[in-house]
Write a structure and sequence with these properties.
The protein is mostly helical. It has two domains: 79 residues, no CATH class; 196 residues, Hypothetical protein af1432 (Orthogonal Bundle). Helix content is 69%, strand content 0%. It has 18 helices and no strands. Helix 6 packs parallel to helix 8 and helix 14 runs antiparallel to helix 15. The longest helix has 24 residues.
């Protein structure tokens, strides 16, 4: 049953009857234009320009550290021309998901962005230096949206999500472990359902359902699933960097990553240091979104 505040009872989710939000009309028009018979940069830019919020957020991401452009892009038409149709499509989907599912709790939304962008930056580092071959454009969007199930939780099940976070804080465990202890749906399940309903790229749906430690263990050889492997490792490295996990969990995560990459302790520490150093870029990006970049260290 849906509550007056727009949230729903956790029991509804357990019964599989949770109604997920629909894709925004503005994004539907954009996708129809891009996927049409003869899309042009001008036509796509005109559709984007009709939604000022979409344009503002898209330009912030375009000008973020991930793309590393030589100079800032100020107009959406230039962004379309520079990035191309495929990248603009992925970018618009990313912004739509983030904005349409933005929760009331600004602090938790900030934490979501912080982890999402940090994971994306770490994934870029991995693709460049440690894991190949990987489609870096698909990887970026998949990394940004891998945890979108958390937004579904925050938007539709805020009380249950609060209980999960409280357990994360009290026991220094990951969100996945908290979900197992309290029961109910996982953020991975909710994220994958939303990705399929919205017709997001398959790489995003896979990232939503496959990014935690058990998934990394199950993947096997890196060469068999390079992008899925990169998402798992990036998410886990971000958790090690940002979250207050207990020693056992830290050792388990570090040990699995070392084993799968074939790294010794010195090589792993160098990799972890790279992830830690990316926090400066994350701080700058989150601040550009208009949300205070200050964060706390909690499991999840």
């Amino acid at each position: 049953m849906r509550k007056c505040d727009g949230s729903v009872d956790a029991g509804v989710v357990l019964e599989g009857n949770l109604v997920l939000p629909s894709m925004p009309a503005a994004v539907q028009r954009l996708l129809q234009t891009i996927d049409g018979p003869r899309p042009t940069a001008t036509a796509v830019a005109q559709v984007l320009a009709a939604d000022a919020g979409l344009v503002a957020q898209a330009l912030k991401i375009v000008n973020s550290a991930y793309y590393g452009l030589p100079q800032p892009i100020r107009e959406i038409g230039h962004a379309v021309a520079y990035l191309g149709m495929a990248e603009i499509k992925r970018l618009a989907l990313t912004v739509a998901v983030m904005d349409h599912l933005a929760p009331e709790n600004a602090q938790e939304f900030q934490r979501f962005w912080y982890h999402a962008f940090h994971t994306a930056l770490v994934s870029r580092q991995l693709a460049r230096r440690h894991i190949r071959p990987v489609d870096t454009e698909e990887l970026y969007v998949a990394a940004l949206l891998h945890d979108v199930g958390k937004l579904v939780y925050m938007k539709l099940l805020p009380d249950r999500y609060g209980e999960l976070l409280a357990l994360c804080r009290a026991s220094s465990v990951t969100l996945l472990e908290a979900e197992r202890q309290l029961g109910g749906p996982s953020h991975q399940e909710l994220g994958a359902r939303l990705a399929r309903q919205w017709g997001l790229p398959d790489s995003v749906a896979r990232a939503c359902s496959c990014h935690e430690l058990p998934d990394l263990v199950a993947l096997g050889e890196v060469a068999d699933h390079p992008q899925d492997f990169a998402i798992c490792v990036s998410n886990l490295l971000s958790q090690l960097t940002l979250d207050a996990l207990d020693d056992e969990q830290q050792d388990e995560i570090a040990g699995q990553i070392r084993s799968d990459l074939g790294y010794d302790e010195e090589q792993f520490l160098a990799l972890a240091c790279e992830a830690y150093q990316l926090e400066i870029e994350v701080e700058q990006f989150v601040r550009s979104l208009g949300v205070p970049a200050r964060r706390d260290r909690r499991g999840g």
